[in-house]
Design a protein that fits this description.
Helix content is 53%, strand content 10%. By secondary structure, it is α+β, with helices and mostly antiparallel strands. It folds into two domains: 80 residues, Glutaredoxin (3-Layer(aba) Sandwich), CATH 3.40.30; 104 residues, Up-down Bundle (Glutathione S-transferase Yfyf (Class Pi), Chain A, domain 2).
């Protein structure tokens, strides 16, 4: 049995987790999830039936279940310290700040925009992201003066933050700005990104051909 069972669908945030799995060189097997016919085994591990869901077969009969793409990314960095993707002491502030900024305000802002939800100007303080424009401006300022989240060194935070930017640029949910496109271009050169993306693109093509 592989160390991890990875429940995913290639047309989902599972792409983020697969990239993280490849960055750390994890031993994993994939369980593809059909959104119209979700396997019972997924419901047993994640009652919400969401992907990605990661099951870590650890310490014999013990299993650890991790859900939410951001949590999966950091968990993999923690369980594979030799990969060197955890923050060093002086990097922790930026690492956690922008990891959670992407998982919170950026995710919320992009979703709200896609849904056509407008936050009234006098209630932006009630929304975790304030406004879409403020969130994008904050993300741009962070990326304007550095190569990666923690400066010049790639960390696991870049898998999650970078996925938000990469996906957003492809689907138009994040605006085309020089800082965003340059960051995405750097990430797309990584071997693990390319390996993981090739797997998911092949699965998407096969599903479309069979459909």
């Amino acid at each position: 049995m592989a160390d991890f069972t990875f429940f995913t669908n290639p047309m989902s945030r599972g792409q983020i987790a697969r990239w993280a799995l490849h960055e750390v060189g994890a031993d994993y097997e994939t369980e593809l999830v059909d959104f119209e016919n979700r396997p019972a085994s997924l419901g047993q591990t994640n009652p919400m039936g969401k992907v990605p869901t990661l099951v870590h077969h650890h310490d014999g009969d013990h299993i650890h279940v991790v859900t939410e793409a951001a949590a999966i990314c950091h968990y993999l960095a923690e369980t594979h310290p030799a990969a060197g993707l955890l923050p060093q002491e002086h990097e922790k502030a930026d690492y956690f700040r922008f990891f959670f900024f992407a998982a919170g305000p950026v995710e919320q802002a992009v979703t709200a925009k896609a849904m056509g939800w407008e936050v009234p100007a006098d209630r932006t303080g009630m929304a975790g992201f304030g406004s879409y424009d403020k969130t994008m401006d904050g993300l741009e300022r962070m990326l304007a003066d550095r190569n990666f989240v923690c400066g010049d060194r790639f960390t696991m935070a870049d898998v999650y933050v970078g996925s938000q930017v990469d996906w957003g640029l492809q689907f138009g949910s994040i605006p085309e700005r020089p800082a965003f496109t340059a960051y995405a271009d750097r990430l797309r050169e990584r071997a693990a990104y390319r390996e993981a993306k090739a797997i998911d693109m092949k699965l998407i093509a096969e599903a479309q051909n069979n459909g």
